[in-house]
Design a protein that fits this description.
Elements lengths: L11 H23 L8 H10 L2 H17 L11 H20 L6 H7 L2 H7 L4 H18 L3 H23 L9 H7 L9 H23 L3 H24 L15 H23 L6 H8 L1 H12 L10 H4 L6 H28 L1 H21 L3
């Protein structure tokens, strides 16, 4: 494997990209949660939905980019079972566990097992962004484990992107509950409520892997600017191709849904993400003394993602104590902007504190993690209802 100088450092443009994605996600979720239903019927809101709809693909795309940065440091160690691989796999299962926690129908293991209905289990095992990240990263490590040659690894990842994209309309046309266990069926499509199933969303994570890998190769050869210009051209070409193919009077699939399953829409969104990543790279080249405050939301994106959902929508743990319970879901534009600003500041301050503990008070950081996890598991296992 080539010794790439950029492997051991964080890249500012990726953190800027992920920070922007977090802000877009917070904005979209606050507006959806509180803006008047009447205003949500207006055309301007529909345009907003297109841009907010990029937040989940962008979150996955960013996770794919960081996967390569962190993986190349231990490339050889991940080819066999050992402490580094075990620790990483454990982290991915933690991500999946957090996703399950957010979907709990009841804050009681006994109640779920004893009284859980099919609807409850469909809710529990629905596939969301965390599920896509967890399953996607586990699958990438499985490929890496068996395909030790770098070109073979990235070749298979590239082929998987194409397969996921093109097969999505067929997969979404099948009720997977008739063929797979419920927990696996929920991963495949949205027939039973999964907001972000593996088809097509894991394709965005894999695409981030390829872009990041090619970027590191370009850095190694001192051609990162040329690579970014090429990435912009590829992104623009994907957008144009998606629009052109969608306009052609040719139908390859029995059922065609542009907004949910279309490969053309996948191309368009992927092209937008490539252009956006290019833009943040050029911005990053103008920042000579980056301030960590600018990127803390992006670097702690998992923390922000989980915490904002708990505070905003609530879970089985706090179904009565969350913003949706306290604020009317029928406010005007001015009020919703104010809510967004206040909520973002709160998330920012909590993230700063969390990042400070991680960097300077690591023992306390671990104690907080352990205490919260222990209390959650204790009450989840022991509560009857």
């Amino acid at each position: 494997m080539a010794d790439l100088s950029a492997t051991t450092q964080r890249h500012l443009f990726i953190d800027l990209f992920r920070t922007a994605v977090i802000l877009l996600m917070l904005e979209g979720h606050v507006i959806r949660a509180f803006l008047s239903p009447y205003l949500q019927q207006m055309s301007l809101f529909q345009h907003h939905e297109f841009f907010h709809g990029l937040s989940a693909p962008a979150f996955l795309f960013g996770a794919g980019m960081t996967f390569v940065i962190s993986t190349r440091k231990r490339w050889e160690e991940y080819h066999h079972w050992g402490k580094p691989l075990a620790r990483r796999i454990g982290r991915f299962f933690l991500i999946l566990s957090l996703g399950l926690m957010l979907h709990l129908p009841f804050f009681s293991l006994r109640k779920i097992v004893t009284y859980g209905t099919t609807a409850d289990y469909l809710q529990l095992f629905q596939s969301d962004v965390l599920t896509c990240i967890g399953i996607g990263l586990l699958s990438l490590h499985a490929i890496l484990f068996f395909f030790k040659n770098e070109k073979h690894f990235y070749g298979l990842v590239t082929a998987t992107i194409g397969a996921v994209c093109l097969l999505t309309p067929f997969v979404w046309d099948i009720d997977m509950l008739g063929y797979l266990p419920l927990s696996l069926a929920q991963l495949m499509n949205s027939s039973h409520g999964s907001p972000f199933p593996l088809f097509p969303y894991v394709g965005f994570l894999y695409a981030g892997v390829i872009v990041s890998w090619e970027f590191l190769v370009a850095v190694h050869h001192g051609r990162q600017k040329l690579f970014m210009l090429k990435l912009a051209v590829i992104g623009a070409s994907l957008i144009a191709a998606g629009m052109i193919f969608d306009a052609l009077p040719i139908q390859l699939y029995p059922k065609y849904d542009f907004w949910y399953t279309s490969p053309n829409y996948f191309f368009i969104r992927l092209g937008v993400l490539m252009l956006t990543a290019t833009g943040f790279w050029f911005i990053s080249t103008k920042i000579h003394q980056p301030n960590d405050i600018l990127t803390v939301l992006g670097r702690e994106s998992l923390f922000v993602y989980v915490l904002h959902l708990i505070f905003l929508y609530g879970t089985a743990i706090n179904d009565k104590i969350n913003l949706r319970s306290f604020i009317s879901a029928n406010v005007g534009v001015g009020d919703v902007v104010g809510i967004f600003a206040a909520f973002t500041v709160a998330m920012f301050l909590l993230t700063l504190l969390w990042n400070y503990l991680k960097r300077t008070q690591f023992m306390l950081y671990r104690i907080v993690q352990f205490t919260v996890s222990y209390l959650f598991l204790y009450y989840f296992v022991t509560r009857e209802f």
